[in-house]
């Protein structure tokens, strides 16, 4: 009896099985800081787990550094299935070329489908170079990540103009699909204390980095100081009323005076005080919007404020949609009353 | 010493409204800015030119009409401008753009330094500079707040956590510049007029290169594709403070007292 067709069927099945395995899984390039795994790496592991579960793949981590071997334990607890460790004095502090060389060698052997980085200084320098070297696509600073299971393609939402809206990007053909995720965007995975594993040590001989760090830049001050880091911001619009009162209010609250574009047009604030996506972005504890109507790009630049108080005469002013506390009244009068109430 | 500066353009956010409730993006005015990072990168190049002399070449490849971007660059003080024309490059992503720019550097007969903005204003992507460095096989400095050239080396100030460090590498190199690093200068008035004048003016300083001549069009397939837009959830409306102005002020003061840091 001729059973050769069975071989054929088996071969086909094997073929499909290989496809389904789809290369070398989901990889996280881990980062350590101060003798611990960086929080963003754990977030990346959480994302990797979700993707891997939909894909039917394993999660791996590559951990590069000096004296990092024991940190592999944390990665296993976070849900990584396999850790590759390159432990070498030449890998700390971070240098691009040594890291890149090791990762390219590793990934050429493993053929990852997805590679995740944290969007840190290391990730920002390394991820594009890795994608370029391996011919993969890179989506930076993904905030929402999902999977199109039919094509095994990751879809990631990238904040446009700092989060005003999102553009969903995907890398349909090129592999690996490289992603960086913004620190603090995703939840950390559950740490399973009973989860253990034995990392594979890589035998590496890192090269010399092309960029040498000469030392701290003493006396260097970045041009922008203050406003974007201020914890209280009192922002004025055209209808803010008496400028001197607003300044007194800011002083009382220990904050900085800013304004929207309208206030700048009216000459109430300087160009470097304009809260706008093209000007200064602020993320204070308290943002007091005095007589600001609120437009898309002002609102986007202050959207990270923890607590927003809006004072405007028009009950339909868009700023009220962004505010936690809304006062519908003549702003100048409210500021005057507020000075009394605080004083 | 030749410095190539990449000037991209970006849709001016002032003309856009993202409407979260309608989940739509309205483009009310289609106006373009020079990508702020690229603008700062050009300023960095011009400062090197002012300091020790250099030829500054600006390159752009956006869809036509895109004269203004390059002409603004010339008016600020660049010596030459290259406009990369041709289909394929207009909607190229950074992976393709890096390959095209590599071919541009080669056609130009090399360059000592390529400067480009670090992060795009719109998409927040920061991969063009590093990808180009990788394609050229040059060292890269990501996020240089100041740039100096001495003895065939480049020295830059870069962020390191919360601090700043001085880094150094050999030329040629690719350096990316944060938008806030340098305040771009205003174009020189006479030059600004001159760049639009054909005869005897600087209009001839804009070279037009066809991307198809630079590289195989098959290499122009973008790696990434857009799959639609998404909008953030609307923030819930806050509490309206009722009552007289004095009562409202009292309520705000109470809330602020509870919130005052420190």
Write the SSE topology:
The complex is a heterodimer of chains A (343) and B (262).
Chain A: H1 4-21, E1 26-30, E2 32-33, E3 36-37, H2 39-55, E4 59-65, H3 72-78, E5 82-87, H4 96-110, E6 114-118, H5 121-134, E7 137-142, E8 144-148, E9 153-160, E10 165-170, E11 177-181, E12 200-201, E13 212-216, E14 232-236, H6 243-253, E15 256-259, H7 261-265, E16 286-290, H8 296-301, E17 307-312, E18 325-328, H9 331-342
Parallel strand pairs in A: 1-4, 1-6, 4-5, 5-12, 6-11, 7-11, 14-15, 14-16, 16-17, 17-18
Antiparallel strand pairs in A: 2-3, 8-9, 9-10
Helix pairs in contact in A: 4-5, 6-9
Chain B: E1 2-6, E2 9-11, E3 16-19, E4 24-27, E5 32-34, H1 36-52, E6 55-60, H2 67-76, E7 80-85, H3 94-107, E8 113-117, H4 128-136, E9 140-141, E10 144-150, E11 153-160, E12 163-170, E13 173-177, H5 189-194, E14 206-210, H6 211-214, E15 225-230, E16 239-241, H7 245-259
Parallel strand pairs in B: 1-6, 1-8, 6-7, 7-14, 8-13, 9-13
Antiparallel strand pairs in B: 2-5, 3-4, 10-11, 11-12
Keywords:
heterodimer; A: 343 residues; alpha/beta; Rossmann fold; 5-stranded parallel sheet; 9 helices; 31% helix; B: alpha/beta; 7 helices
């Amino acid at each position: 009896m001729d059973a050769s067709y069975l071989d054929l069927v088996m071969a086909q099945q094997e073929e499909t099985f290989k496809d389904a395995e789809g290369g070398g899984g989901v990889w996280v390039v881990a980062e350590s800081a101060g003798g611990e795994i960086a929080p963003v790496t754990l977030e990346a592991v959480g994302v990797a787990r979700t993707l891997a579960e939909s894909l039917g793949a394993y999660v791996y981590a590559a951990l590069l550094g000096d004296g990092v071997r024991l940190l592999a334990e944390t990665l296993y607890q976070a849900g990584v299935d396999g850790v590759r460790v390159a432990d070498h004095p030449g890998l700390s502090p971070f240098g691009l070329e040594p890291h890149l060389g090791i990762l390219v060698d590793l990934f050429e052997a493993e053929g990852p489908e997805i590679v995740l980085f944290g969007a840190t200084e290391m990730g920002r320098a390394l991820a594009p170079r890795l994608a370029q070297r391996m011919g993969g696509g890179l989506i930076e600073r993904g905030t929402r990540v999902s999977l199109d299971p039919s094509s095994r393609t990751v879809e990631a939402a990238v904040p446009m103009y700092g989060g005003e809206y999102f553009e969903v990007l995907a890398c349909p053909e090129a592999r690996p699909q490289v992603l960086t995720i913004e620190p603090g965007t995703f939840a950390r995975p559950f740490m399973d204390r009973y989860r253990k594993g034995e990392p594979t040590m890589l035998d590496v001989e890192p090269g010399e980095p092309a960029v040498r760090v000469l030392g701290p830049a003493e006396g260097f001050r970045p041009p922008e100081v203050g406003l974007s880091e201020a914890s209280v911001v009192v922002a004025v619009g055209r209808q803010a009323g008496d400028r001197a009162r607003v300044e007194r209010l800011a002083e009382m609250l220990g904050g900085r005076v800013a304004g929207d574009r309208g206030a700048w047009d009216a000459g109430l604030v300087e160009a470097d005080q304009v809260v706008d996506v093209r000007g200064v972005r602020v993320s204070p504890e308290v943002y007091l919007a005095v007589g600001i109507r609120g437009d898309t790009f002002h609102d986007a630049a202050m959207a990270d404020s923890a607590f927003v108080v809006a004072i405007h005469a028009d009950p339909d002013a868009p700023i009220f949609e962004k505010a936690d506390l809304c006062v519908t009244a003549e702003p100048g009068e409210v500021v005057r009353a507020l000075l009394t109430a605080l004083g | 010493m030749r410095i190539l500066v990449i000037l991209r353009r970006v849709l001016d956010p002032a003309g856009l409204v993202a409407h979260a409730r309608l989940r739509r993006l309205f483009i009310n005015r289609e106006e373009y800015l020079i990508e702020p990072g690229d603008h700062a990168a050009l300023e960095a190049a011009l400062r090197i030119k002012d300091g020790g002399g250099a030829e500054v070449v600006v390159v752009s490849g956006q869809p036509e009409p895109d004269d203004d971007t390059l002409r603004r660059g010339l008016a600020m003080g660049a010596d030459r401008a290259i406009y990369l024309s041709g289909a394929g490059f207009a909607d190229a992503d950074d992976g393709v753009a890096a390959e095209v720019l590599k071919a541009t550097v080669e056609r130009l007969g090399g360059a000592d330094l390529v400067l480009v903005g670090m992060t795009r204003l719109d998409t927040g992507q920061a991969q063009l500079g590093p990808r180009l460095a990788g394609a050229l096989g040059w060292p890269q400095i990501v996020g240089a707040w100041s740039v100096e050239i001495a003895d065939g080396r480049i020295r830059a100030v870069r962020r390191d956590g919360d601090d700043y460090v001085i880094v150094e590498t050999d030329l040629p190199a690719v350096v990316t510049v944060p938008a806030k690093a340098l305040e771009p200068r205003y174009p020189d008035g006479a030059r600004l007029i001159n760049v639009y004048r054909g005869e005897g003016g600087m209009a001839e300083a804009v070279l037009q290169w066809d991307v198809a001549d630079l590289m195989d069009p098959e290499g122009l397939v973008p790696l990434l594709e857009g799959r639609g837009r998404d909008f953030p959830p609307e923030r819930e409306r806050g509490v309206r403070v009722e009552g007289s102005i004095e009562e409202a002020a009292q309520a705000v003061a109470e809330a602020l007292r509870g919130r005052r840091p420190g």
